[in-house]
Design goal:
The complex is a heterodimer of chains A (273) and B (793). With 273 residues, chain A is of the alpha+beta class. Helices cover 32% and strands 25% of the residues of chain A. Chain B is α+β, with helices and mostly antiparallel strands. Helices cover 29% and strands 25% of the residues of chain B. Classes of the chains: A alpha+beta (273), B alpha+beta (793).
């Protein structure tokens, strides 16, 4: 499997990169860590005219924290997140999730922005953004805008990006009142989850984002409300009926729903204290 | 003469020692030479247009656009290559009734599985060849496909080869005693289960590949080949490309795993050789991972309805089963696709005393990738049937599964004897192996832990298997049926002028350490430091003629040939030394690279002896033959196979909420006769166990109802990875086979053959408190949850 011929572009600034995207009129694809795009090109599922490598864009790097928000550059790699004390201290949920994301080799190259732009429904990062009430900072020909995570993921491999590049994510700094939970069920370590959930609890109010279960990372408001009301877990789980669960070779929708319930139950048991 | 006791008990006693393998540093430093590392002048690359349908008529092939694409050198259709390659048929005469149709390297009028090569494109790079493949326009008329083996013989299922009238490839019945009477006897419980074994495949780290070079000036074809049997492939290339056998040279340098995958005739590889001959320039084909999944042989795919009869006191009275297996649209050439079913018929229940046996095997054609011999051919099925039913029976009569085995296993002092199916057995140690196993695993401690854990809702299970493994096959395996497959192997040992040994062998190295054990045997038997032995394998031009490495035969057969050759060279050297030292040969030995007295005192360094013979022959008597090289060949006689035995146990935990299974620990006690290098044997067993875990829990080739392979990527086809590998504790019992001086039996397939049954039994032991059990592999979470739900209803 060899990719068809393509042009390789390596812009030195965000403005140049955006100009290149416009110039290629949808035929160019931005290259971040390449952990999904390169296999897709080798499978000839993706055949862009050009790749725009974002490696040199300093605008897309760096982790900074102000009073209530951590800004993480889109080109931050998973391995960098894992070793970053700011992230570990201020966004404990990401710290809980990272060991479950693939393996070292993938984490050394894969980027947070790449994962969000791809919007794989089984990936952890989109669900983390939902649970954390993060905002996604994107830049386009008309400038920069912020998109709430809840408005960003539109479907399977579908996002709100419109000729734009993700430049950073903005995640609220965890408050002392917050508690977090994370659980995913994979047959092999590092695989995409058969079902998983990321939970953030603020005071008594729950936000629970499921992944690997439907066409996109998914929240169920009724389920969150039931959790907030401290309903019996059996009652809480009935609200999973709202999700249109995926059928695939590894699990049919019934099994998936059941596993989503197990993941939720276990994530709640394992909430940070 | 030197004698066996001497070989295994003297200085330079390398046989049996945990010597680190010499080639590990080379491979770790990236200096391996795999097929894709070979680059030849004027080399071009092949890619294939493959059938997107499981069954389709090929109406037309338009190559016009592709021919004018950048870098394209040539394009061949099935008809083009049929003019240069004779068809091949995967049947053998000793498998009576087996039928298969002629196969061509590229599909001719009909494509019969998704992935079958249809058109070959040769271009200056693989990427350009793939670009051109997209421009080839093949017009197909899709036909209904025969996919499901259970309906393959139904009247309304399409017949893949109309000339046969049905999709039946082969069938065989084995009957011993009177099973009906035995089952009907008073007090006999009959346990009945339906087993399903999913299709899976070998997944070699290095995919299949070949680089073929043809020199018209000498009519010589040289094939760099990632494979296990160079001499077999020499015959096949010669026969079907119309070249004199001596004009075909097959070279297998480093091979990155094979597991039985790389021992067959693949159309894309034959086409590559044909293209090299036609183009008169080197052509390389390296299968990518997708091609590997849809063309590498698959294995298993059995549905078995089985019964075991057992008395209340625990005596097994017999086994009765029906095995149905689907093999794809052809029987693979030249080993055939009936062997796995045949092994199931022959081996089921072979560890146990049993008088009544009835087995029916049916092998059917289907529009899927071809099925053939993958590591532990038939063994995981045979062992799971017998030991799965045995542990089910143990639960039924309330007996401990170890005690039930003790009662029924053949006694260690009862050999030679035959199994119920007529297999000749000798030198086995089932009972000692089982006792050693229960000791090293602390069986009673695990049972106590199991009881405690259940109180907390944690369901752990312990499962066993007592097994045999077919190793060291004689000519009765393939040669008798007309296959160009050598059952003997040869070794040459040469003393060089510097006093080092240069040895070569017809067995092959696929990563398991063949070259390392050959060096150990040569060094130990001859009497020289291990680091002064150089080994050559995998080249039809420079090694003795032989079968290669498969069926766990390398160490036992190739190793014995090396032992005999090293002994012969030692005798030659001592004859010369006797003359030079004016001493009787019986008073001399060779130790540490020097001729010595029997007490080890050095008399003459080998380098001095060799230099005298090679350079200064004038100092020697005229009738002394200046020959310091010996070749010996060896084949197994008296037995069709040399069986090994083993006992294995799995400790698992089943998460009853998710259906996930975690293998907590695995133990294997193996009796492979004399262990040549415990490091290598243990890693062979561990690697085999991991592949067995794959078959039991993870690996499955999924097909859609119309024959589309649905999970042909490493993300979707799950092989166990490091995190899924438990600690695997290995212990040995050494009962050397009397068929050779070396006494080594094979060890390469035991883990793969035994682990699935042990894990199945462990999972069912874990599920037993819920009254649930599972009889389908892989045991996926969903299947386990379904069984738990069924039991709860």
């Amino acid at each position: 499997m060899k990719a068809p011929d393509f042009d390789y572009l390596r812009p030195s600034s965000l403005d140049v990169a955006l100009a290149m995207l416009i110039e290629h009129d949808g035929e160019a694809m931005p290259l971040a860590g390449g952990q999904s795009l390169m296999p897709m090109m080798n499978f000839r599922v993706a055949a862009p005219e050009a790749l725009i490598d974002l490696a040199d864009l300093t605008e897309l790097r760096g982790i900074t924290v102000d009073t209530d928000t951590v800004r993480i550059g889109a080109m931050t790699r998973y391995a960098e997140l894992m070793s970053d004390p700011t992230v570990q201290a201020h966004i404990p949920l990401i710290g809980m999730a990272l060991p479950h994301i693939a393996h070292d080799a993938v984490r050394n190259r894969g980027t947070i922005g790449g994962s969000l732009a791809l919007a794989d429904p089984a990936a952890e990062m989109p669900a983390l953004m939902l649970a954390l009430d993060a905002s996604i900072e994107v830049a386009g020909p008309d400038g920069t805008r912020m998109i709430k995570a809840d408005d960003f993921f539109l479907g399977m491999f579908e996002t709100a990006l419109d000729d734009e590049l993700i430049t950073a994510i903005h995640v609220p700094v965890a408050t002392p009142a917050q508690r977090f939970g994370f659980h995913e069920l994979t047959q092999r370590h590092g695989d995409y989850a058969l079902a998983g959930v990321a939970i953030a609890k603020t005071d008594d109010s729950y936000c629970a984002a499921f992944f690997g279960v439907a066409d996109r990372a998914t929240r169920v408001p009724e389920l969150e409300a039931a959790l907030t009301r401290q309903d019996n877990i059996k009652t809480v789980l009935t609200h999973l009926d709202q999700i249109d669960f995926t059928d695939d070779l590894k699990a049919n929708h019934t099994t998936r729903q059941r596993l989503a319930g197990v993941a939720l139950t276990r994530a709640l048991k394992g909430m940070t204290q | 003469m030197t004698g066996p006791a001497h070989i295994f008990d003297k200085p330079n006693r390398y046989i049996g020692q945990p010597e680190p393998r010499a080639d590990a540093a080379r491979l770790l430093q990236g200096r391996g030479r795999f097929v894709d590392d070979e680059k030849l002048p004027r080399m071009v690359h092949a890619a294939f247009v493959r059938s997107p349908h499981a069954h389709a008529k090929i109406l037309s092939v338009d190559t016009e656009d592709a021919l004018s694409a950048t870098g394209v050198i040539a394009i061949y259709t099935g008809a083009d290559l049929a003019e240069h390659v004779t068809p091949y048929i995967g049947t053998l005469t000793h498998l009576t009734g087996l039928r298969s149709a002629p196969q061509h390297p590229l599909a001719m009028d009909v494509a019969r599985w998704q992935g079958e090569p249809v058109v070959m494109v040769v271009a200056t790079s693989r990427a350009l060849a793939e670009d051109a493949c997209e421009l080839v326009d093949v017009d197909y008329d899709e036909l209904p496909a025969a996919v499901n083996s259970e309906t393959a013989l139904d009247a309304d299922t399409p017949v893949i080869h109309p000339e046969f009238g049905s999709n039946l490839a082969w069938e065989r019945d084995v009957i011993a005693g009177d099973i009906d009477a035995a089952f009907a006897a008073p007090g006999v419980h009959v346990i009945e289960r339906e087993f399903r074994f999913g299709r899976h495949t070998g997944v070699t780290l290095e995919s299949r590949g070949t680089l073929c070079e043809y020199d018209p000036s000498e009519d010589q074809l040289t094939v760099y080949y990632s494979g296990q049997a160079p001499h077999m492939m020499q015959v096949i290339f010669s026969k079907h490309l119309g070249l004199p056998e001596e004009n075909v040279r097959v070279i297998s340098n480093d091979v990155g795993g094979s597991f039985g995958i790389k021992i067959h005739t693949y159309g894309d590889e034959i086409a590559t050789a044909a293209a090299a001959k036609l183009l008169r320039r080197p052509v390389k084909f390296i299968a990518d991972r997708f091609e590997s999944f849809v063309t590498d042989i698959h294995a298993r795919d059995h549905i078995v309805k089985a019964k075991m009869g057992i008395t209340e006191a625990g005596t097994i009275v017999g086994i009765d089963f029906d095995d149905l297996t689907g093999i794809g649209p052809f029987s693979m050439y030249p080993r055939t696709s009936a062997i796995e079913c045949n092994q199931v018929l022959n081996l089921t229940g072979a560890p146990y005393v049993m008088e009544n046996y009835r087995a029916k095997g049916r092998v059917v054609f289907q529009n899927k990738t071809l099925m053939c011999q993958y590591r532990a051919v038939g063994h995981p099925i045979a062992m799971a049937i017998a030991d799965g039913l045995l542990e089910d029976a143990a639960r039924k009569i309330g007996m401990d599964p170890v005690a039930l085995r003790e009662l029924n296993l053949m006694a260690d002092d009862s050999y030679p004897r035959t199994s119920a199916t007529g297999m000749k057995l000798d030198d086995l140690s089932h009972k000692r192996a089982l006792r050693k196993l229960t000791e090293i695993m602390d069986y009673q401690g695990l049972r106590a832990d199991q009881t405690e854990a259940r109180k907390d809702g944690i369901y752990r299970g312990i499962g066993f298997v007592s097994m045999v493994e077919v190793t060291n096959p004689s000519p009765m395996f393939y040669g008798i049926g007309g296959a160009p497959i050598a059952s003997q192997d040869g070794a040459t040992v040469r003393l060089d002028a510097g006093g080092a040994l240069h040895v070569s062998s017809s067995i092959t190295e696929q990563g398991q350490g063949t070259n390392a054990i050959l060096a150990q045997i040569a060094a130990g038997v001859f009497g020289i430091a291990l680091n002064r032995v150089k080994v050559t394998t995998g080249d039809t031009a420079t090694t003795p003629y032989g079968g290669g490495t498969w069926a766990s035969r390398g160490a036992g057969i190739g190793g014995e040939a090396m032992l005999l050759a090293a002994q012969a060279l030692k005798d030659q050297v001592l004859d010369v030394a006797g003359v030079m030292l004016q001493t009787g040969v019986e008073k001399l030995d060779i130790r540490d690279g020097a001729v010595t007295d029997l007490d080890g005192k050095e008399r003459l360094p080998l380098a001095d002896l060799a230099r005298t013979v090679y350079y200064r022959g004038n100092e020697l008597p005229n009738d002394l033959n200046p020959e310091l090289i010996a070749t010996r060949h060896y084949r197994v006689t008296d037995f069709p196979f040399v069986f090994t035995n083993g006992a294995m146990a799995a400790h698992v935990e089943v998460d009853t909420e998710t259906g996930f299974v975690k293998v907590l620990h695995f133990w294997a006690v193996e009796d492979c006769g004399r262990v040549i290098n415990p490091l290598l044997v243990d890693e062979q067993i561990r690697g085999g166990v991991v592949q067995g875990i794959g078959g039991a829990l993870y690996e499955e080739c999924h097909y859609s109802p119309d024959g589309q392979f649905l999970n042909a990527t490493m993300a979707d086809y799950m092989v166990p990875m490091a995190s899924e590998m438990p600690d695997i504790t290995i212990a040995h019992i050494e009962t050397p086979t009397k068929t050779s001086v070396l006494g080594a039996k094979g060890a390469g397939e035991a883990g793969t053959g035994g682990a699935p049954a042990a894990i199945l039994n462990a999972v069912n032991d874990a599920l037993s408190p819920m009254g649930a059990s599972i009889w389908q592999m892989p045991m996926t979470p969903e299947r386990i949850l379904t069984m738990l739900d069924n039991a709860a209803e």
